[in-house]
Every structure is written in C-alpha cells, then in structure tokens.
Design goal:
heterodimer; A: 265 residues; alpha+beta; Ubiquitin-like (UB roll); Fumarate Reductase Iron-sulfur Protein, Chain B, domain 2; 2 domains; 5-stranded mixed sheet; two-stranded antiparallel sheet; 8 helices; 7 strands; B: Flavocytochrome C3, Chain A, domain 1; Methane Monooxygenase Hydroxylase, Chain G, domain 1; 5-stranded parallel sheet; 14% strand
C-alpha cells in the first residue's frame, strides 16, 4: 500500500500509553506535523518525543535499537498489524511515505499474554529466551569442534536451514496470532538446527524441551491460519510449522519407546 | 602514572601464543567454581566469553542492557568473517592473514596480537560450523568464500548478508545453554554504570535495572568488559541507537587507560544522509564491492543527470583508476577518503552532492539480474526500503559513514587493562586493528577474544587471586560507587533544562564530523576542542540545558540516553585531543598536514610508531598521554601501497 510521493505528511497518532506493568493503559492522541515522507516511523516517534520533552511531558517509551531490521527489538502494532502495513519488514523499516497525508494511525504494543507490557509500547519478551535456554542449541564445547569441512552439508539443506535461521526473535508471530502461539518461532529454531547434520544428536531432546517450555509459558496452540508468517519481518514460512509437528511427533514416539537421555540416532 | 607493560611473550612470532599458553598459570578444575567472573555485554565477544568461561567451570554473571543477549549490535554485521583456511587454494595462510591485517591497520597494531588472531581464526570457523551456523556452501556441500577489501585472496566466510546475525545467534545459543544449565546468571535490561576498584584491582560493578531503576552491586574476582565501540559519539553512524561508551568510559575514569581514541573507521559504502531528522545511517555491505563498480561523473555538469544517461567515457571509475591492483576492493579508509576527495571536487552525486555511484550494470550483464539477486538480494531490498529506488535499474548512491572504532581501552597481550582484573574484549579494546580495520575482521576478533583467548588468559590472573578475599558488596568502595551513580542520576534530573538529549547529541556529532571526521587539521581540532567543553557546559546548565522528564524508578529512556550522551560529551573531547597530538596520518586518522603529494597518508614512524594511551587525572585536569612503543620485529614497516 505504498502511497509514495514526496509531499510532507501530517498525521494523527493514537498511541497506547501505560505507566507500568500494573497500571491501566489508554490511547492518547498526538499530532505529528509537516514531516518528510522519507522519515522512518520510529524517527517520527523521536520527533514527537522531543516535542513532548520540551513541554515537560514524559515521552512515549518504545523498544528499538539497530533500526535496520535485524536486532528484533522494535515491536509496534501499527493499525492493528504487528510491524505495520508492509510484508517482510520490521517496524523500524516502515517509512512515512507508506501513509496518506492526514492519516489517523493507531500504535500499540505487541499483545500476547506471555509478553506483558513493561511501559507504553515496550513489552517483556524474555519468554523467547527461556524457550531457547531449554534446547535451542547444539551442545559443543569450545575447542572441541572438528575441522569445519569434515561434514559436508548439501547446499539445499544449508539454504533451507538459513531460511529458518533468519528469525530475529521479535515476537511478531505470537503477537499476530489470536492464540498467541509461538509455533513459528519454535519451528524456525527447531528446523534450522534439525536440518543440519550437526544438529541430529540432540534433535529429539531439543524439540521436546522447546515445545514443553513454550506450552508452559502460556503460548497457545497453532490455529493453522498463518497470521504468524504474514506478520514475520523475515517472511519465515509456515511450512516450518509442519516440520516442527513432524519432528515433535517422531520424537514423542521415540521417547516413549526409549528414554531420551540415552538417545543418539 | 599507570605502567603500560604489554607483556608480549618472547620468541619467534609463530611460537609466541603456543608457548604462552603452556607457560601461563592454570586454575585447577575444582577451584574454578570458587571464582566469580562478571561479563558485561553479550555481543560476539561477551557471549562467547561468558559461555566458554562457564564451560570451564567459573561462576559467570553476564550483564546486558538489551532485553535479550541476542540483540547486541554484532547482529547487524553483514558481509562475513575472515579465516586463514585456504579452502580456495589461492595461497592464503596464517602469515598472509596476519600480514594483511597489520598492513591494513597501517602498522599501528601489535604484531604478536595480530598473529594470534590469524592463528585462531581457523578454530573459529570450526567452532561456528559445529554450533550450526548456516554458512554459505558450494554444491559439493563444502564451505564457500568471497573476497573482501584489503586482501588478494578469498578468505571470507559468510551467511548471505547476515553473517553477524548467524554468528551471534551461535554464540547466543552457547550462552543460552549455559543459562539453562544454571552456569551463567543472566542479567538482562541491566546497564553497567560503574566499575568498582578495590586495592587497585577491578572487583565488581554497579548496575541499574533499566525497567525498575533499581541499582545493584555485584562483586567478582575479575570483570570482563565486552561492551562494543564508541562510534555513536558522532551521533549519526551505522551503530545501533543504544550502542554506547558508558561502561568503558566509567572504567577509564576509574583508572583504565584509553588507547588511540582517534582511530575511528569511516565505512565507504553507506546510504547517504537525507535529512536532519535522521537517527542512523545504514551500511551497504562491503561485499558489494566484489561486483559493484564505484564511479562519479568526470564532469561536474553531469552530476545531476540520470546516471544511466551518462556515457561510459564520461564516467570516472576513480578507485580502479587510482588503485589498479586492488581497484574497488581497496581498504575502507582509502576508499572513503577517495570518495570525499571526488565530492570535494564538486563531482558528488545526489541531492546533497555528498554521494558516489555504486553500479551493478556490468555485474548484471555478466551474471544476469538473478545472479546478482542471489548474491546480494537482501542488500538491494534494504536499499529499496530506505531510498524507494531500484538498484537493479539505476546505480546505488553511497557515501562514507562512521562504522567502527579501532581505539578502545588499552589491554596487554592477555587482554587485561592496566587495572589488574579488568579485561576488555572485542571492539571495546584497542589491540588488533591498528589505525584501520579490514572488512570481515571485527567478527573474527570478537570471537577470537571470547572463545579462544580470554579462557586461557583469565586463569593467569585468577590463579594469583584468592576467592576467599573477594570483597563484599558492603565494602566502602562498593557503597561509594553506588552513591556516585545515584548522584549522577540526580544531577541529570536536577538540570531541568529546555532541550531534549537529542539536541546535544546532534550538535556533538556535527562538531566531531567537521573537526575529527574523515580529514583532520590542527585548526579544526583546536576549534572542536573549544566547542565541545562549551557544549558540555550548555548541557549541564541549570534551567537551560538538558531536560530529562520522568523519574528514575522505572523505564526511562530519556534518562538512559542522557547518561550516555553526558559520557560522549567527555569522550568526544578525548578523541580530538588524541587526534591533535598524533602529528601524522595513518589509516583512518588523516591529518591534512601530513600527506604525500598524491594525497596518501604520510606516517611518521620515527615519532609515532606507538600506541597513545590516555590516563584520567581527575575532574578538570588534563589527561596524561602515555606511550607504548610498537616494536616491529618481523614485518618491515613500509608505505601502504594498494596501487
């Protein structure tokens, strides 16, 4: 929906303000006037915040860091869509030229029960770290690795693993899902490592531990509507969810037949 | 005065590290668990160090100001990581990687450190592959390489245009495993605001929980800083907005020497500045220079024309013309200065005249659009998102931007600063890149320091320390440090000025870009040295200066930034002081007074073949400039030649 053009933009922002995790929140309107259309959405918030500061009001808290779509920190819901109107980009890569002059734009934090609001538009997404800590790794002691070219990896497998590995851990998938499911996130990690020969030894243990942790943290089940991949700034395919389900089923059966701890296919 | 003993081991260059490892002291496995080590930062260097030290058995606490360790700015590195694997059979070796790095740094780094870096580079690739880093591969399943600036071999490993992301996620996975196993205690949303020094040794930190504002004291047997570079002192840079110098600056003010602060890297291929609202600059990976050709029009009158309409003979492929041997792949400092020169001549392109073309039409003719898309598709997408232009149809416009800092806290061969017990890794230290860093070497150094150097060298220090004597956080030094931090916060709120923090940050950036950017002069630096203290005074002026709204007892991003900019306002001055004192040109430090007739850097090895390390002398007093001579035993210092 790029509206393009070079004329300046004035927009009305309806921004979710919430003083703290326990405080009630509400929408507050702000005017952002005569802005360069090549300004990024976050730079517009910078300008609004500087104006609030000059008036002695508290600026809008929002999460951001790299501002080039790779760190996964930014996390705005813009007009109801996590990361805004465009497919395949993060909030920080959204530019004002994508909005009509005079538009009224609603800005909210990511909404998912396991991502509680810290303040305004900032949420706590440490739940994703906990899922990773449960099994999102290949156990390899530093210094114990074999020569890198000892294990050839078919180019196709490496490319597919990379497609999954691109996940930036932003949480848009869970925020876009009506069930707050983290399946796409977990599927990306499980697929990345499961597609590589190096990841086979812990494949069953990994998928079981990560899914169990995900469920325990309050993320819901997949509804097969794939809002997640539509919102994903890296366009990670929901095909990986099918792969996750397959891996999970196979691992469950194998673990029922013999204890996982002794596994090592 | 501090003593700067680099403690470089004796013996032949290629033997130093191996011999050193066998001679330094060890801590036995049963005792390791008694030692506590603090790691600040979880980018490539910090995460790899924390994970590896925990594997060895040390009790590790890791502090990050991000909400997750996976967000450190290492994640944004695009192009690749160098390693002397010689998989291409093109004549690479540890010695060649060492030599290229020394020469690339314009002979201002330590031979012994750089050789060690080249040696362990091969282990890094092994480690990362074993962790599941999905590096690019050839059809036979083996690892692929590409070329980077400053080298005539192909030794760069990569994962599309997201190599830093994949390497960081590898280190993050190792760290996550340790956190899950309980061997690393992770403190996210925690910013280190002071270093605690007890009896001359680094023994802990004071940190602020960014979500609650609560200050806490943490004691340890050693403190490791891996907090990245200070390029955001320029305001506009390719750094993440949160990247800051506060941890190393507080360490400096507690006695750690700051080495070569004026050695900053300006990267040649970034998207040009378009407006004063801009919050950051975006890099276009150096890997693009493998296939892109850089040019400007020969005639000024062509600068505003459609580039596709400019005939081949009216284009000046100036890098190919000036540096035929390396062409578009000459080192970053050389390419940046050349771009500045053609723009100064009035031949720059784009609205501001501060831009040059990076053209892929020849590559598209050779490889087809699909071939170019396969190699660089994500970079072309980034370019389109930011500029709304299609680089498959018309050349990209690029211009140099601040990208990396070679300077940092001074460390010895063990990566320990002059404050015993304080270790500094990755971009935060000064040691390996001299006056200019080659592409794909930052990732290499971060992981070398974290995976393969500090795990050995920290033991050498700890073996001489008794965990039973580790000071309590109730010790007066800890209480004082916390009181100091609280006092600084109160002072920021008390200014109750009129301007937002960004106002001062932008002005500081403008002063530094003008006076201490790509080209520096005595007069320009002296002017910056007058302007920065005046700006600092304005920042702190009661009722007029900075305005920090809100309170300190919850998430307050204005307060965070105000503290960081307050530190930048001091560090910026040190940058200029260092640049003024270094009366020579080398690498990224170009003093217009010191150049050859063809505009190349004129080093002064007789007077400046040394590291300049600055020691804080207290408020209101000039810092002392200490010197560590660089003794080149194995490489002959020569004029860098990429022609």
């Amino acid at each position: 929906m790029s509206t393009g053009g070079t004329q300046s933009r004035s927009v009305t922002l309806r921004v979710w303000r919430q003083a703290g995790p326990e405080a009630p929140g509400r929408f507050v309107e702000y005017q952002a006037k005569d802005l360069n259309p090549n300004m990024s959405f976050l730079e517009m918030l910078d300008v609004v915040n500087d104006e609030l500061t000059m008036k002695g009001e508290e600026p809008i808290a929002f999460a951001h860091d790299c501002r080039e779509g790779i760190c996964g920190t930014c996390s705005l819901v813009i007009d109801g869509k996590p990361h805004g109107p465009h497919r395949g980009i993060a909030s920080c890569q959204t530019y004002l030229r994508s909005f009509e002059d005079g538009a009224v734009i609603t800005v909210e934090p990511f909404r998912a029960r396991p991502f509680p609001v810290v303040k305004d538009l900032v949420t706590d997404r440490s739940a994703f770290d906990k899922i990773q800590q449960a099994g999102g790794f290949i156990t390899v002691r530093t210094g114990a690795a074999p020569e890198a070219n000892v294990i050839p990896v078919p180019k196709g497998d490496a490319e597919l693993a990379m497609d999954a590995a691109q996940c930036i851990g932003c949480g848009a998938c869970a925020a876009a899902c009506k069930n707050a499911s983290a399946m796409l996130f977990v599927a990306a990690k499980v697929s990345h490592l499961g597609l590589l020969p190096q990841g086979q030894a812990e494949r069953d243990r990994r998928v079981l531990a990560m899914v169990e942790t995900m469920d325990g943290l309050g993320f819901g089940g997949c509804t097969n509507q794939y809002e997640c991949s539509a919102a994903c700034p890296k366009l990670i395919s929901h095909d990986f969810i099918a792969r996750l389900n397959r891996d999970y089923l196979a691992a469950s059966i194998r673990s029922a037949l013999k204890p996982v701890a002794q596994e090592g296919e | 005065m501090a003593q700067l003993n680099p403690r470089i081991p004796p013996g032949p260059l290629a033997e130093k590290w191996r011999r050193h490892k066998t001679e330094i002291k060890l801590v036995n496995p049963a005792n390791k668990r008694k030692y506590e080590v603090i790691v600040v930062g979880a980018g490539l260097a910090g995460a790899s160090a924390a994970a590896t030290l925990a594997e060895l058995g040390y009790k590790v606490s890791c502090f990050v100001f991000h909400d997750s360790p996976r967000r450190a700015h290492s994640i944004a590195a695009q192009g690749g990581i160098n390693a002397a694997k010689n998989y291409q059979n093109d004549g690479d070796s540890v010695y060649r990687l060492f030599y290229d790095t020394i020469k690339g740094g314009d002979y201002r780094s330590r031979e012994a450190n750089v050789h060690r870096l080249a040696e362990v580079s091969v282990n890094i690739i092994d480690q990362c592959v074993a962790q599941g880093v999905p590096f690019a591969r050839e059809y036979g399943g083996l690892l692929a390489n590409r070329s980077f600036g400053g080298a005539q071999v192909s030794r760069t490993f990569y994962a599309r245009g997201q190599t830093g992301q994949q390497l960081l996620l590898g280190a993050y996975s190792a760290l996550s495993r340790a956190v899950g196993a309980g061997t690393v205690q992770l403190h996210a949303n925690s910013e280190m605001l002071d270093l605690v020094v007890v009896d001359g040794h680094a023994k802990g930190i004071v940190a602020r929980d960014l979500n609650t504002g609560v200050l806490s004291r943490h004691s340890a047997d050693a403190v490791i800083l891996a907090t990245g570079g200070y390029g955001n002192v320029f305001n506009l840079s390719t750094y993440a907005r949160g990247s800051n110098a506060t941890a190393i600056w507080r360490a400096y003010k507690r006695g750690a020497c700051f080495a070569n602060p004026c050695f900053t890297q300006i990267h040649p291929t970034c998207i040009p500045v378009t407006g004063d609202y801009q919050s950051k600059l975006t890099l276009m990976s150096e890997s693009l220079r493998n296939d892109g050709r850089i040019w400007v029009p020969k005639n000024r009158e062509d600068c505003r024309k459609d580039p596709n309409s400019i005939a081949e003979e009216s284009r000046d492929y100036y890098l190919e013309r000036m540096y035929p041997a390396f062409g578009n792949l000459c080192p970053r400092d050389v390419a940046s200065r050349a771009a500045k020169r053609v723009c100064d001549e009035g031949r720059g392109v784009g609205e501001t005249g501060l831009g040059v073309y990076l053209d892929f039409s020849e590559a598209i003719g050779r490889l087809g659009e699909a071939g170019v898309r396969e190699r660089y598709g994500n970079l072309f997408d980034i370019y389109r998102e930011i500029t709304d232009e299609n680089a498959y149809k018309a050349p990209m416009r690029i211009f140099p931007a601040v990208h990396y800092t070679m300077g940092g806290l001074w460390v010895d061969y063990n990566l320990m600063s002059n404050v015993p017990g304080l270790f500094v890794l990755g971009e935060a230290n000064f040691s390996d890149h001299g006056a200019n860093r080659l592409g794909a070497s930052a990732l290499m150094q971060g992981l070398a320091d974290g995976y393969f150097v500090i795990p050995y060298t920290v033991g050498d220090y700890l073996a001489g320390q008794s965990p039973a004597k580790r000071p309590s956080t109730e010790a007066p030094e800890f209480r004082q440090a916390e009181a100091d931090v609280g006092g600084r916060t109160d002072k920021l709120f008390a200014v109750k000025g009129r301007e937002p923090v960004s106002h001062f940050h932008k002005r500081l950036g403008n002063i530094l870009w003008a006076g201490c950017g790509m080209a520096r002069t005595k007069a320009g630096l002296e002017q910056a040295l007058r302007e920065i203290p005046a700006l600092r005074e304005e920042f702190w002026a009661q009722g007029h200066g900075v305005n920090v709204p809100g309170s300190g007892d919850n998430l307050n991003q204005s307060l965070e930034r105000a503290g960081r900019v307050a530190d930048f306002l001091e560090l910026g001055e040190l940058l200029c002081r260092d640049a003024l004192a270094r009366e020579e040109s080398c690498g990224g430090h170009f003093r217009e007074e010191h150049q050859y007739p063809d505009g190349e850097c004129r080093r002064d090895d007789a007077n400046f073949a040394h590291v300049a390390a600055w020691e804080y002398q207290g408020e209101g007093r000039d810092p002392a400039r200490l010197v560590e001579p660089l003794n080149y035993e194995f490489v002959k210092m020569s004029v860098r030649n990429y022609k």
